[in-house]
Design a protein that fits this description.
399 residues; alpha/beta; two-stranded antiparallel sheet; 15 helices; 39% helix; 13% strand
């Protein structure tokens, strides 16, 4: 039945979106086939060495890490993706542009993390993704269990005592969770550079999260009643539909318009060839609780643990309200990068966060007023606008 419905949808799309696409100027060295490749396949395709590693968390989730190795003793940089994403975030715009490749070109030992539940980390010692119990986590567990497990594995494997950390969106959230709840990990971080940092979500402009925030209690009840644990799973049929909806024409590109509604609009920085590739790798899988947890913060106006409701909160936390994360206790040095047109990491929320970080080394708004949430990963000029500065900071830190 699912295949029949998909076929009907594809037919309708073909009838309405059959006009020829205009010729486009290609900024990135990528190919359409990249949408159907895994991250290890992509890295190998573009002639970089790739290693695949695995580690297991304290609560049984088996995580996959991807590595572009540097020379023995090279400084280690750990990259962590955002919500619904994967290690693909750092390579999909290809060599000479993707941050993982740029760092490797500069001699860094590059490690790419994958959170529980995404397409590369769907194994558990006793559960399967078909079980509702597998998905009973939010980004708290990713910060408390996954990130420490991956960082410890990386440091042990490279025989290093600390590393550089770069995160985007949820990749920053989980860092703040880890370093505030497990303070010993602050000493393992040389420098943390945060792209579109998300902790407070009071001013989020994303329509999706606004709806979820407004109806969160009903949505949580619905998800639990019907056992819906995964949010927007990685699905081949969904990707095929999206591929046809993603015309290489800004005005007719439904996927792009959806992205703009979620992340903020910046059409001048979009390379249309990259959108089908992005859709091929995203969504990569996440738990409904991860999205719900962000929506809760919009209502509570706090950066706090998952709210189970008063009765269960008493059982889990010993208090009727979830404990807040004490960001001011984080001692690792941090640099914050944010965009003025970011619907998810809204500047007012980032300013609030920055005012609480005691070891804030820099606080930088990207020099483009239309820069949005996803531009940190796919903007045409992201190298010059962000990555060059990031690499300079890493190099000066090592000198």
């Amino acid at each position: 039945m699912e295949e029949l419905v998909a076929a009907l949808i594809l037919t309708l799309i073909g009838l309405t979106c059959s006009a020829p696409s205009p010729e486009i100027t290609r900024t990135f060295q990528v190919e359409d086939a990249d949408a159907r490749m895994t991250v290890p396949q992509l890295i190998e395709k573009y002639n970089y060495t790739i290693e695949v590693h695995h580690t297991t968390t304290e609560d049984g989730y088996e995580l996959e890490l991807h590595r572009i190795p540097g020379k023995a003793g090279s400084p280690v940089v750990f990259l962590m993706h955002g919500l619904l994403c994967s290690s693909a975030d750092w390579v999909i715009i290809g060599p000479n542009n993707g941050l993982a490749y740029l760092l490797a070109d500069q001699g860094f030992d590059v490690w790419l993390g994958n959170a529980r539940g995404n397409r590369y980390s769907r194994q558990h010692t006793s559960l399967t993704p078909n079980m509702f119990a597998f998905w009973q986590f939010s980004w708290h567990e990713i910060g408390y269990y996954d990130l420490p497990a991956m960082i410890d594995y990386t440091l042990n494997h490279t025989n290093q005592s600390n590393l550089h950390y770069i995160g985007h969106s949820q990749g920053t959230t989980v860092f703040f969770v880890m370093t505030s709840t497990r303070p010993e990990y602050n000493a393992k971080i040389q420098l943390m550079q945060a792209f579109a940092p998300v902790a407070f979500t009071e001013n989020v402009r994303s329509p999706l999260l606004q709806v979820m925030s407004r109806f969160q209690n009903s949505l949580v009840a619905l998800f639990e009643t019907f056992g819906i644990g995964e949010f927007l799973p990685n699905n081949a049929i969904l990707h095929e539909i999206a591929r046809l909806l993603c015309s290489k024409d800004v005005d007719r590109n439904l996927c792009l318009n959806v992205i703009f509604q979620v992340a903020g609009a910046n059409p001048d920085q979009v390379e249309l060839q990259i959108i089908p590739i992005l859709i091929g790798h995203t969504p990569a899988g996440a738990a409904t609780r991860q999205v719900t947890h962000y929506a809760q913060g919009m209502r509570s106006r706090q950066f706090q643990r998952y709210d189970h409701g008063k009765i269960k909160n008493l059982a889990v936390y010993g208090t009727a309200r979830p404990p807040v994360y004490n960001v001011s206790e984080i001692s690792a040095p941090i640099v914050l990068y944010y965009g003025a047109n970011d619907f998810l990491a809204e500047p007012a929320d980032v300013l609030r966060l920055g005012g609480m970080i005691r070891n804030l080394h820099a606080y930088r708004q990207v020099e483009l007023n239309t820069f949005n949430h996803l531009d940190f990963l796919i903007a045409k000029d992201v190298k010059g606008l962000v990555y060059d500065d990031v690499i300079k900071r890493l190099q000066s830190w090592e000198d």
